[in-house]
Design brief:
The protein has about 190 residues and is mainly α. It contains eight helices and no strands. It has one domain.
Length: about 190
């Protein structure tokens, strides 16, 4: 499947397909856009920044759609999607933490392998400020996709294994240190 994705990555409709995957992944689709972004950048490194932009823009737009599901349709469609992915218990715990740490949750979850759709739907259900949600989503999703493109452009195909296996781990470790330092600073001061 990966070889097919690489072959399709240089086709004229690849950008549309990645945009559709990026949009839908932010609200209900299970496959992350990285599965298309990485091979597309490897196939066309000259278009890397454009690919990152489209992936970020469509992911944020899909995030707004997920937010709307949570805000307007949580009791019907939103709850059904959460249950479909087996995230009901995680969602309830998440919602409690959301009231206190909403912005940080968006920033952290947008970079990790935790499904972003959970963040988007929960943001709407918690009636989190839409403008702050959009700005945080731009920052976190953009950081993720632009970092992937930057590494692919800098190191070429040799970095592909690292990006596919370890980028999330490195990003998560960085965020743990950052948030841990923030929490320690708040408790000390």
């Amino acid at each position: 499947m990966y070889d097919k994705t690489i072959a399709l990555a240089s086709k004229p409709h690849a950008m549309w397909a990645m945009g559709a995957v990026s949009f839908t992944e932010s609200s209900f689709f299970p496959i992350p856009p990285d599965a298309l972004l990485i091979p597309m950048v490897l196939a066309r490194p000259d278009r890397g920044w454009t690919i990152a932009f489209v992936c970020t823009a469509t992911s944020v737009a899909g995030g707004v759609f997920g937010w709307a599901i949570g805000y307007f349709l949580y009791e019907t469609l939103g709850r059904w999607l959460i249950d479909l992915y087996g995230m009901a218990q995680g969602y309830e715990d998440f919602k409690l933490a959301y009231a206190k740490w909403g912005l940080w949750i968006i920033l952290i979850k947008g970079l990790t392998p935790i499904p972003y759709k959970l963040v988007t739907i929960a943001s709407g259900a918690a009636q989190f400020d839409l403008i702050v949600f959009i700005l945080a989503s731009i920052a976190t999703r953009g950081a993720r996709f632009y970092a992937e493109v930057g590494l692919l452009k800098l190191f070429g195909p040799s970095i592909r294994t690292f990006v596919e296996k370890y980028l999330t781990l490195v990003t998560t470790a960085f965020l743990v240190v950052l948030v841990g330092g923030f929490i320690i600073a708040v408790k000390v001061f």
